[in-house]
Design goal:
Length: 485
Amino acid sequence: MKRCFVLLILFFFTIISGLKAQNKTNSKPNIVIINMDDMGYGDTEPYGMTGVATPHFNQIAQEGMRFTNFNAGQAICTASRAALLTGCYPNRIGMSGVLLPGAKHALNPNEETIASLLKKAGYKTANYGKWHLGNVLPYWPTNYGFDEFFGIPYSHDVWPIDYDGYSKVTDAKDLRSSFPPLPLISNTTIIDTIENIKEASNLTTMFTEKAIGFIKKNKKAPFFLYLTHPLPHAPLAVSDKFKGKSDLGLFGDVIMELDWSIGEILKTLDNEGLTKNTVIIITSDNGPWLVFGDNAGSSGGFREGKSTSWEGGTRVPFLIRWPEKIKAGTVNSSLMTNMDLLPTIAAITGASLPKNQIDGLNFLPLLTGKTTTGPRDTFYYYFGVGSNNLEAIRYKHWKLVFPHKSTTYNQKLQGKDGLRGEGATMQVPLALYDLSHDPGEVRDVQLLYPEIVQQIQKIAETAREDLGDDLNNKTGKNLRKPATY
């Protein structure tokens, strides 16, 4: 009898110890990043949108922190996503510009990502949506720390379909005529192709449902969900449940559906009892592709948009909620970038930092109120498709723009009703802007503040030594190579 009693006590002790260990494991906060494609600074109500209600974007802003000076690592898809996942300037790791089907390089699997670091720390990891860091196997998400991937390898306009969403591009001079059908991938297998805009209209719902299933399946273990919506990148596509629902046409319908997607994620976290222990982040990979006119978003009054080093190209929305850790309803104007997410998430979760050099900085003390200002005061605006150009530097509230050739959306008519407008380029002169008084980058004040120009020029020399600059025929000393094939 006594022996049975002892065994019973040992049994209960084992159960309790197991529960304690489980609770200890489950105490790690879940991480959810929702990264939109080409969503401009001004495309939601927390950032000034008029004409489209965005109640769930609003909810995250009201229950968390809204940043007003958050920048993507570079103003184009591939480079920005590389910056977010690795914490590096994309040119440091050979991932500037954008990958198209003919590309022969990809993110090097030796680079550690948020996913790979969290996986080592015991997290379940998944990416649903657009990848755009490698077009072929083995350069898909499951080779970079993600347990699961379901999505498309690049933007949904990388297909041989014309702007009407259905007709094949037959003009051999049009690069799109050489593009393959848009594949839909599950982990490492192409399971389908997306043939037209009607089929693309299912993407937001499809990826949202996959994300919900992942949360429910992994609610007892810490998880990292990377939901990368392909929209509102053109061509716009919206499901029947939101078609014609907004007062702002198709673009407004798309924003409403993205807001719905956020709402479904929030509802799932609530229903599963995960809200308190989940950090949710909402941002965009770069500014709006303004050449599409009414089918593009708003840069919120900042100059230009995607593919430029003006504020409209890199400054994007950033909302973060972590109940009881981040004070609700706060607004912060500290300079932050998507490179800073990796070290900040590592600090939140206790994950290790990458062994190789990164450029991101830890913002956790700012988020939790231990400090009032962020650790970053400098940001390099590199850009170039096939080149490595240092086009501007921000230092505190100053921005020095170097002479370079830039895309501009202001010289010719933009598109309408899904048709692309006519692009243009301009030669940009040296100029200094005070973003505190001139966020639209209109008034050059270099003659008033020559000492600031000189100070930032010294910072530029440091950047060029480190990362290079094709505009000055400078090769950086600390660059790492992408994977090639």
